[in-house]
Amino acid sequence: MTEIVTESILSVAGLSASIAGQQVVEDVSFEMLPVGVTALLGRNGVGKTSTLRAIMGLIERSGEVTIAGQRVDREPTHRIVQRGVGYVPEDREVFSSLTVAENLRLAERDSSPNRQLIHELFPDLTDRAGQLAGTLSGGQQQMVSLARALVNDNRVLLVDEPTKGLAPLIVMDVAKALERAAQTVPVLLVEQNLQVVRMLAEKAIVLEGGRVVYDGSAEELLSNEALTKELLGVA
Amino acid sequence: MKSLSKLSQRTWWIVGGVLVVIAALLPLLNISIPGVLPGATYTPGTLQLLALALLFASLALSYHLLFGTAGMLSFGHALYFALGAYGLGIVLHETELTLLPALGLTLAIVITAAYLLGSLSLRVTGISFAMVTLAFAQAGNVLVRRNPGITGGEEGLRLDTEHIPDFFIGVVNTRNLYWLALALLVVVFVVVAWFENSRAGHAVTATRENELRVRVLGLRPFGVKLMAFVIASVLASLVGMVHLLLQSGTTPRATSADFTLTILVIVVLGGVGSRWGAIVGGIIYTLLDQRLTALASSDAIDGLPAILRIPLSEPLFILGTLFILVVLFLPGGIAGAVQRLSTGTSLAPQKRQRLEEAE
Amino acid sequence: MSTIILLLITGLGLGALYFLVASGLSLIYGLMGVLNFAHGSFLTLGAFAGWELARRMDGSSWGTLIASLVLGMAVGAFVAAATEFLLIRRLYNRHIEQVLVTVGLALASVALFEGIWGTDAIYVTAPEWLSQTTEILGARVPNDRFLMIGAAVLVLLGIVAFLRYTRFGLIIRAGVENRSMVTALGIDVRKAFTVVFAIGGAAAGLGGVLASHYFGYVSPQLGGSLLIFAFIVTVIGGLGSLAGAAIASVVVAVLQQFANYFWGGTGDLMVVLLLAVVLLVRPTGILGKKA
User: Fold this and answer.
1) How confident is the model at residue C80 (pLDDT cuts 50, 70, 90)?
2) What's the distance, CA A218 to chain centroid?
3) How many angstroms away from the CA of B301 is the closest CA of chain C?
4) Residue C289 DSSP symbol
5) Potential cystine with A92: which of A7, A141, B292, C217 (Cβ 3.0-4.6 Å)?
6) Residue C240 · residue C25 · CB < 8 Å
7) Cα dist. C251→C11, C161, C247, C255, C259 in Å?
8) How many CB atoms lie within 10 A of CB A127?
9) Residues 6 or more apart whose Cβ sits within 8 Å of residue C284
C-alpha cells in the first residue's frame, strides 16, 4: 500500500505565548496550506503578530510548532530561520542606519541568492542600493523588508501586515510581489486589508482573544458578510 | 514537615522577634563558636565584629529597598552611607552640637542631597541610571579625597568624641554600640517592611514589573521611585552614622565604587528581593570577610606554593569568585536556595525573572 | 596662548585614553546591553603584560614599546573574548546578571592583580623621546601625548573600517540597531558578541600600555580609575554610539584639563556636572538612540 503523506509545511498545536508575563497567545492550533497563501486574520490586538513572533521564537512560547515535520519550538530564532523560514515583520524593521544593499546582503543565507528575482520585483531597490534604508519611504522600506525574505529560497514565508500604512498604488505592488512569491513558497499572511486577502488567500484562520475561532476557506468567510462582520468587525 | 514558605506572615515576625531577643542577650552570654567568631560573645572584639555584621545587614536591607523592591540598580549607594558617616563626623568636629542635634542636622543634609540627586538620576532608567549614580558617588569620592582639611583626606576622619555621650566611648562600652546597631537593624527592617506594604511600595513594585501599566493606571512612577530612593538613602546614612561611632572614624573607602559593589554583592548573595536574604547576606559576608582576612595571613596559607598562595591570600578574590559562582549557579542567592530546599521545587526561573525586572 | 595649546593637546591625549576604554564599552553595550565592569581589568592586565615584557627587554627601545603595545592588545583581546565565552554567554539575554558577573570579575581580578604585583605603583621605562617635549606655537608639549592621540586615531579608523567592510561589522552595526531582527534573518548573533568583546578588550589592552606611559606607572587600580570616566564618556556620548564616544572622550578630557588648570583642580567635578547637564537636556546622550 502506498500512501502519499502530504505533511504540513507549518503546523501549530496548543501554542501559547506571553510578553513580560502577560499572555498574548492562548492555545492556538492550526495548519497552513502546503501551497499558496494562508491568511491569519482577526481584529486589532487579538494576537496575530504575537503568534508569528512566537512561531519565530522571538517571544517566550510553549506548545508545538512543526516546520516540514520537524519540531522547532525549542530552537533559537536563527536556527528556525535557517530551516528555511522567511520572516517579514510588522512595521518592516529595516536597519535604518544600513544601506539598502547592506540590508539585503545581511539577509543572504543561500550561496546563490535570488538577486535577479529581487531586481525584477523591485527595480527601485537596485537604483537605491547605496541609500540608507532609514531615508526610504514606507513603501520602499516594505520592499526592502520583503526582499530580505525573498532573496533566499524558503520553505515558508511569514508576512506580517505588509500593506499597513501604504498608499493604494503601493499596496497593489506589494500584493503582486506576494502573489508571485506564493507561486513558489507557501505564505502565512497577517493582513488587515481584506481586498488583498480576497486576492491572495485560499485559506483563512481567524483569531479572537488569542484563540482560533475560524479555520476554513477564505472565500467562504469573506463572501459571508455577517460572519465577516462578526469575526473581523468589518465588511 | 511544614514548608518554610507556608509559614504565615505573623509567624515570621514572631521568629524575627525571638531572634532579636537572642541577639540582644549575646553580650551577656559566654558563647564561643571557634572558626566563626574570634572569641566569646561577651568580649569587645567579638561584639565589635557582630555589630559590624548587623550594620552590613542594615545597609544591605536599605539597598534591598532600592534594588530588590524598586528595581533601581544604583552604583552609588555608598555615597549616602558616606554622607552619614562623614556628615556626622564633620558636624561633630566643626560645631558645638551634641550627638542628637548633630544627627538631626546630618539627616537634613542627607535628605536634601538624596532628593536633589535622586530627582536628577531618575530622569534616566536602567543602565544609564546605574552609571549616573556611579558618577555622582565618584564626585563624592573626589570631594572627600581632595579636601583633607575637612575630611582628613586619604587618612580618613577620626571621630571627635568631645560631644559624644560617655556610654558610646571606649572598648568597655562596645556592647552599647552593639545594641545600638541591633536597634538600628530593627528600625531599618520595620521601615523597609512598612514601605513595601504601603500603597507607595505596591506602586513601586508594580513599576518594577511594568512601568507602562502603572502609567496607564494614572500613577506617576517617578514620585514613588524618588520616595524609595530617598528612604533607602536616609537608611544608608543612618548606618553610616552608627558605623562612624562603632569604628571611631571613617575612611575614603566608604565613598568608593568598590564599597557600593560590596553592598550589591551582599544583596545578591543573600537573594535579590528577599528581606531575610539581605540580612543573612550582610552577616555572612562580614564574618566571611573577617575569616578570609585571618586565613590570608595564616601560616597554613604562607606555606603554599605561589599559585595557590596568591589567590587565597586575597579575600576579595575569593569573595568575587564566590559571587560569580552564585550568579551563575545559584539564582536567588542564599534565600532562594533555602526556599528551594524547603519546598523541594525549583524557583530558579521565578528568581531570575525578578532579577531581570530590575532592569 | 601656549598654556591653552598645552592644555588642549594634553586633553586630547587623555581623551585618547578615555576613547580606547569607552569605544569597547559602547560597542559591547550597544550590541549586547551589557555594562562591562570588568573592562578596567582588561586594561590593567594589558598594562601589566606590557610592563612584564618591557622589563625583560630593553625598556627604552622603540621595538620594545611596539612589542609591548601589541602584547597588551593581544592579552586584552584574549581575556575579553574568554570572559564573554565562559561567563557572559551562559547568561544570554539576562542583562542584570551579566552585569553582576562582570562586577564579580572586576573585584576578583583586581584582588588577584594586587596579589601578584602588589598594591604599589610600578614605574615604567619608555623610549627617551616620549619623556621629551616638542614645541608647538610656544607650548612645550610632552611627546607621549602624540603617541596617545596617534594610537586612538588608528584604533578609531580601524574599528570604523572593520564595521564598514566586514560581514561581522555589518552584523554588529545591524545588531546595535535591532538585535532580534538580526536573528530573524537567520544569523547567530552570539558569534558577534565574542567579536565585540575581543575588539573592546584589544582597545582596552592597548589603552592599558599607553596609560602606563601617560601616567608613568602601572598599578592594579589603573583600569578602575579610568573606567569611571569611560562610563561617563559613554553616557554623555550616547550608549552604543562609537562616534558619540569619540566626541565625548575629547570633550570630557579637555574640559577636565581646563577646569583643573583654571578653576583650581575642579576637573573631576566639572565632568560630573557636565554629565548632569547632558542628562537634564538630553537624557540619551549626544548621539544616543532612544532607549
Assistant:
1) very high
2) 16
3) 13
4) P
5) A141
6) no
7) 8, 24, 6, 6, 12
8) 10
9) C238, C239, C290, C291
Class of domain A10-232: alpha beta
pLDDT 10s digits, A183-220 = 989 999 999 888 899 999 999 999 887 778 899 888 88
- Min CA distance, C110 vs chain B (Å)? 8
Residue of C nearest to A56 (CA): C184
* Distance to chain C for B122, nearest Cα, Å: 10
How far apart, in whole angstroms, are the C-alpha atoms of residue C94 and residue C170?
Answer: 24
* Structural domains in chain C (count): 1
- Using CB atoms, which chains have 3+ pairs under 8 A with C? A, B
Domain-located, residue C244: no
Show the 3-state SS of chain A. Answer: CCCCCCCCCEEEEEEEEEECCEEEEEEEEEECCCCCEEEEECCCCCCHHHHHHHHCCCCEEEEEEEECCEECCCCCHHHHHHCCEEEECCCCCCCCCCEHHHHHHHHCCCCCCCHHHHHHHCHHHHHCCCCEHHHCCHHHHHHHHHHHHHCCCCCEEEEECCCCCCCHHHHHHHHHHHHHHHCCCCEEEECCCHHHHHHHEEEEEEEECCEEEEEEEHHHHHHCHHHHHHHHCCC
Distance between CA C284 and CA B262 in Å, rounded? 29
Identity of the residue numbered C186: G
Q: Which residues in chain C have Cβ-Cβ distances shorter than 8 Å to B125?
A: 291
Residue pointed to by grid coordinates 521568629: B15
- Residues of chain A with C-beta less than 8 angstroms from the C-beta of C184: 56, 58, 77-78, 81, 87, 89, 93
Domain that holds residue C120: 2-220
Taking each helix axis from N to C end, the angle separating C167-177 and C2-32, rounded to the nearest 10 degrees, works out to 80
Per-residue pLDDT tens digits for B48-88: 899 999 999 999 999 999 998 888 889 999 999 999 999 99
pLDDT interval class at C53 (50, 70, 90)? very high
Q: Are B78 and B263 in contact (CB under 8 A)?
A: yes
**What is the C-alpha to C-alpha distance for residues B51 and B29, in angstroms, rounded to an integer?**
15
Whether the Cβ atoms of residue C111 and residue B317 lie closer than 8 Å to each other: yes
Grid coordinates standing for A156? 515558508
Listed as ranges, residues in chain A with pLDDT below 50 are 1-5
In Å, how far is C138's CA from the nearest CA of chain A?
A: 44
- All chains having 3 or more CB pairs closer than 8 angstroms to chain B: A, C
Residues A104/A74, Cβ–Cβ less than 8 Å: no
User: What are the beta bridge partners of residue C136?
Assistant: C139
Q: Examine the predicted complex and report whether its ipTM is higher than 0.85.
A: yes
Q: A131: exposed, middle or buried (C-beta count within 10 Å: 0-12, 13-18, 19+)?
A: middle
* Nearest partner of C176 among C9, C24, C12, C26, judged by Cα: C26
Is A155 at the interface with chain C, CB within 8 A? Answer: no
Give the count of beta carbons closer than 10 Å to the beta carbon of residue B328. 16
The Cα–Cα gap between B255 and B115 comes to: 19
Mean pLDDT of B146-151: 84
CB A221 within 8 A of CB A204: yes
For residue C105, what is its C-alpha cell? Answer: 570579575
CATH number of the domain located at residue range(s) B39-357 in this protein: 1.10.3470
The per-residue pLDDT for range B163-197, each reduced to its tens digit, is: 788 778 777 788 889 999 999 999 999 999 999 88
Does any CB of chain B come closer than 8 Å to the CB of residue C269? yes
DSSP bridge pairs for A208: A211
Neighbors of chain A with 3 or more C-beta pairs under 8 Å: B, C
Tell me the three cell numbers of residue B270.
Answer: 543573600
- Strand C217-218 relative to strand C122-123: parallel, antiparallel, unpaired? antiparallel
Nearest to C181 among A93, A97, A105 (CB): A93
**Considering just the CA atoms, what is the radius of gyration of chain C in Å?**
19
* Edge-to-edge strands, sheet with A201-208: A85-88, A156-160, A187-190, A37-41, A201-208, A211-217
